[in-house]
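User: Assemble these into one structure.

Assistant: Restating your components, then the assembled model:
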Amino acid sequence: MLLIPCPYCGERPEIEFSYGGEAHIARPQNPASLSDTQWAEFLFMRGNQKGAFRERWIHTHGCRRWFNMLRDTTSHEIYAVYKIGAPKPPAPGEKPAAAKKPATRARKGASK
Amino acid sequence: MKRFSVFSLARNAFSHHEDWPRQWRSPEPKPEYDVVIIGGGGHGLATAFYLAKEHGITNVAVLEKGWIGGGNTGRNTTIVRSNYLFDESAHLYEKSLQLFEKLSQELNYNVMMSQRGVMNLAHNLHDVRESRRRVYANKLNGVDAEWLEPEEVKAFCPIIDISPDARYPVMGATLQKRAGVARHDAVAWGFARGADARGVDIIQNCEVTGLRIEKGRIVGVETTKGFIGAKKVGSVAAGHTSVICNMAGFRVPLTSHPLQALVSEPIKPVHPCVVMSNAVHVYVSQSDKGELVIGAGIDAYNSYAQRGSFHIIEGQMGALRELFPIFSRLRMMRSWGGIVDTAPDASAIISKTPVENFFINCGWGTGGFKATPGSGWVFAWTLAKGEPHPLNAAFSLDRFTSGALVDEHGAAGVAH
Ligand SMILES: Cc1cc2nc3c(=O)[nH]c(=O)nc-3n(C[C@H](O)[C@H](O)[C@H](O)COP(=O)(O)OP(=O)(O)OC[C@H]3O[C@@H](n4cnc5c(N)ncnc54)[C@H](O)[C@@H]3O)c2cc1C
Ligand SMILES: [Zn+2]
């Protein structure tokens, strides 16, 4: 079981939380103009990274707030937790990203 | 290939069983193959076997990063059944069950197929309606299925508690009598031996680390044993499919999760069939050694770690204890995890990809052992012809674009 450091409440056992899957999947800005391929990308296609992975959690049986977590999917080591909307903390070995506005970030294309 | 028989058994008894031949070779990779299969699980090995047997394509290598059958194939609870709701699934799994029924003879290898019957329990009114609907759907598709009332459930499996005040009251069950269990390792080894005998190279300790793609077409794979050229490549990497496809530059609709199972101490035969309950996420059978083989649900989070959390097992044991009071003091001996590749509609993906001559077979998630021969059979066809067989046409990658999902989630629930 993971010991998850909720950014609002501190460390709590995993059973207090629910999982929200991959983080930073921005809703389409203009849904009506999306092609079927773009919908498939948004709805279904996932990075499913092996290694450092950014994911969403909600503290269901606590503060009931969503937050993001950077965790390794092979060791389960938790590198960082950060609030929704906060800049992404870098993964180990990754250089810190220049501050970006997540809300206006265009969705990445099919590759990668 | 030296055939196994009662005579070879007797002959080898004279030499104290020390001179049995190796069941497959351990060759070094050739520079190029007609088909390279990534992943030496049951599905990859079955694919190679049927490529050779059904399509005469024998210049084939199966590349396995660890040892064959060491992935989900060797970690699953071995339930084999075909009582899926939708036509597409029922046809595919039924094909697989029919292949399973003849597999020991076909492979000259005892896969210990035991058609002891699988019951799927219903615990509430919705379960009852859904299950009865599935029985009718199965019958229409030629899949054997029966609906059992609680007393009939008790008659088929006397150790189950059907009292109405139970935490999870048993309100009936579906029964597929032709379903049951088979021996997982034997399935992998039997296919490996059969494929090897037909010329397929099975290369273990050989991890694929990259795909070489030229002008949108695959030409080979980078491995820990160097570059291996290939006219066609089929990825059958289960939980690691996303990793392989990310190498090819496209994403797939899969997430990888731990799925755990455990076995109890061995006891005398008490449990005559397989019992599954979607509602409480437990499924149990008894092995020939006498251990109960019990499957759990997946951990919610993404993981490649081949281990799951204890609270999942705890939930499992609670449900097991409620359904089978007789097991309350049984000790559990071992638990382990596999990494399963789950798709949004809980159905497999057996498909062409955006890269020419690169094919994937994945998304079997928590329930692909039963599909091993059928999956290999249709994937061999797909690789040989470059087009899907009618049995797997509905399971292509583009269903996520067209919206024609095969949504077994609601139907089969936690399918194993
Ligand atoms: C605990 C548990 C219980 C289950 N219970 C059931 C059940 O009761 N009934 C049922 O039908 N199904 C069940 N399943 C599901 C079933 O085990 C799988 O769907 C099925 O075995 C998948 O077979 P496979 O050959 O595709 O995968 P695997 O056997 O996992 O084979 C994939 C292989 O690919 C290899 N590989 C990965 N990446 C690379 C690479 N880069 N290079 C080379 N090789 C690579 C891996 O090492 C692995 O050996 C269960 C699974 C688990 C984990
Ligand atoms: Zn909290």
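The CA atoms of residues 47 and 112 of chain A lie 8 Å apart.
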